Amino acid sequence: MRKTLFEPISGPLTVQYAPTEETELRENPPRFVWMGGSWEDERYALQLSTNENFQDEATATFGPLSYNFFTPDRVLAPGMYYWRYALWDGDGPASDWSRTRRFDVAPGLPETPLPSRADRYAGLSAAHPRLWLDAAGVEALRARVRADADGCGWTAFYERSVRPWAEREPIPEPARYPDNKRVASLWRRMYMDCQETLYAIRHLAVAGVVLQDEALLAKARGWLLHAASWDPDGTTSRDYNDEAAFRVAGALAWGYDWLHGELTDDERRLVRASLLRRTEQVAFHVIDRSKIHHVPYDSHAVRSLSSVLTPCCIAMLHEEEQAREWLDYAIDYFACLYSPWGGADGGWAEGPMYWTTGMAFVTEAMGLLKAYVGIDLYRRPFFRKTGDFPLYCFAPDTTRASFGDQSTLGDPPSLKTGALMRLFAGQTGHPAYRWYYDQVRARESPEEADAKFYNYGWWDFRFDELVYRHEFPDDAPGSLDGVEPLRWFRDVGWVAMHHRMDDPEEHVALLAKSSPYGSISHSHGDQNGFLLHAYGEPLAIDSGYYVAFGSTMHLNWRRQTRSKNAPLVDGRGQYAGRDKSLNLEASGRVEDAWFRDGVGYARMDATAAYRVEIPYAKRVARELYFVGGSYVVVVDLVDLEQPGRVTWQLHALREPEPNRQTFRVDGEKAELAGKFVYCSSGELRLSAFTGFEDVEPSEIEGLAPHARLLAETKRAPSHRIVTLLVPAKKGEPKLVSTFLDDQDHGVHLYFTERGVTKRIEVAKAY
What we know:
The structure is a single chain. Helix content is about 30%, strand content about 25%. It is built from 19 helices and 27 strands. The strands form six sheets. Strands 14-15-16-17-24-21-20-19 form an eight-stranded antiparallel sheet. The protein is globular.
C-alpha cells in the first residue's frame, strides 16, 4: 500500500510549522519542525533550497528522517530559503511534497549546527566509564584529589555523600500504595528512597573508582545488584511512579557504567537487562504514547529525556541497539524542540521552580553529552540567555514574588537555583549569574539546604560541587554589571521591573505576567496578574501554599484567579481546570513593555483567558507603570457585552485595612498604601477577608492564613479603574496626593510627594 502525505493543521497543543516567513530566526541553521502524519512508521525527506522550484544546484535533500523535527549539520549562508518535506519511500522521497515555506537567514546569527546521526558517534570509545568522566578524566580527578582534596570538593563529597552509604544496608524495594491508590506522602517517600539508592550507587562507585578502594567498590556493587533485582514492572516502574522510575534508571546507568569492570559477565547482563527495560518504558511513553515531538507539553516526559534517556543510553551505547535510537531522539530534541516552555529569550512558562528542576536535569544531560559525544548545546541561544529568567523573575532576596507552582513557595530561591546560575555563569561568562549564586550561597549552606524536601529528594550538593569544580576550577567574581531595570520575556509573556536589586533593604521588584501558555501544566489562571516585593518583604503575593500537586489547595485555590492579583468579572476568573486545550486557550499576551526616563511600563491583554469562563467579555486589559522605583500605577480596562461587576483583587500575608477608596497593608519590614484614584462606574465597595475557599482543612492545618482585599464596582458594561500603589519601608510612609485631568486631549495622573509632582499619561488605557 502506497503511503500518501498528510499535512495536518497545527493546533494550540501541537508543535508549529517552522520556520516560516513570520519566523525571526535566532540561530543558524534554523530548526525545522512540521506536524507528523497518520502513519505509525513514517519517515521523512526534507528539501532545502534558495530556489522556490528546488531546481538549483544548491538544493539539499536530507533523509531518511525518523521524526518530524530536524536540525541540519551545516550553517546556511545569509539569504532567503525555501523548504518542504515528503514521506521517505524506499530509497528516497516520495513524489508528493508538502506546501513550500519560506524563511530568511540574517547575517551574524549564532552558529549551532548539529552533527548528523550518521556521524555523531564516530570514533567514540566503547570503554567504561563514560558518564561524566572517561579513564583519562578519572586519572585527572584522582591526581587533583591527591593534591588538594578540599579545594576540588572531594573531602566534603566523601564525608557527607559517600561514607554514609558505605555504612548502610540497601533500601528495600518500595511497597505498593494501599489498594494501589496514590498517596502523596507515600509517593514522596518512595521517590526519596529511590533517590537515596541513586546516591548510594553513584557516589560509592565514583569514590571507589577514583580512590581504587576495593571496599567501596564492593559496597557499590552490592547496592547496584540489589536495585537491579527490583521488578522493572513493579512499584518503581514508569507507569506506577514515574519519579521513582527515573531515579532507579539513573542509578542503574551510573552503576553499570562506573562498575562495569567490577561485574561478572552474568552480573552485567542482569543489570543491563533491568536498565534496558526501564529505559524502554520511558522511551515508549515519551516517543510513542506522549509523542512530545507532536504535543510537547508533557513536563515529566520532556524532563525524562535528561534524567533517563541521556545517561541510560550513553551507558548502553555500543551494547544495545535501541540505545542509539533513543539517544539520537534525545539529542535531536535538545537541539531542535527544547524547550517547549520557552524560546530564545530564555523564559520558562512553568515558573522559576520548574525552571530549576528542568535546568538541573538538562544541564546534567548536556554535560554528559559534551563530555562523551562532544556536542555543546550551551551554544544555543536559549541556554545562553535562560539564566536571565531567575535573575529577573526570581531575584535572590525575594519571597512569594514569582508565578506558577513552586515547592519552595514562601522561601527565597533555593540553593539549587543558585548553583545552576553559577553553572550558567561558568558556561556564558555572565557576571550577574555568578552574583546571584553568591547571594544565595551566603544565606544557605548545603547542609541547611539538605533538610528541605525539595532539595534532598532531587540532588546532592556535594556531588554537584565536585563536578562543577572539576570543570571550572577558577571562578570569576560576580557583579550586576549589565543588569537592566526592566526585562520583557516575550517568549513566555513575563515582565520584570527592578529598582536597586543590589541592596535587599532598598530593592523594589514588580513582576507582571500575561502568557501565551495560559494555565497549562504548572502555570495558573493569572494572566494580567502582578506581584510586588519591596524593602525585604512581599506585599502583593500569590496566595496559598504548595501542599501537593492535585491537592484541593492546588486545584481549587492556587491555580485559580481568585488567589491572584488579577480582576474577577461577576465573581469568575480565568479557566484553570484540567483540559489542556482550554488551558492554552485561556491565554494572555504582553502587548508592549519598556523602560525610559525612570518609568517602567507594561501593557497586557487577557481577554482570551477570561472569555473561556465569561463569554461576554469583550476586553480585559491592564497597564502597569513603575515610577522611579517607588510607585506602581495599575490601570484596568474591562469591556463587556452586558453589564457586569469587576472585582479588583490584592492578596497579602496580612489582612489589608480598607478605608473608603484607600487601603493599607502593614508588614514587618515594609507597608503598602493603595488608593483607587478613579473608577468609571463610581466608588468601589472595599472589603477584606482572611483564609482560603474550598480547601480541605487538613491540608492547611498549622499554616498561617493569607488575606485579600476586594474592591467591587457597580454593574456596568464598561469599566476603567486607576489604582495607585505606594510601597514604603516600615515606619517611613510616603505621603502622596493624586489627581486626574484630561487636558490636551490626553488623560494624565499627577501625584505629588514632598512638593515634587510627577505626571503619568494613561490616555491609551483610559
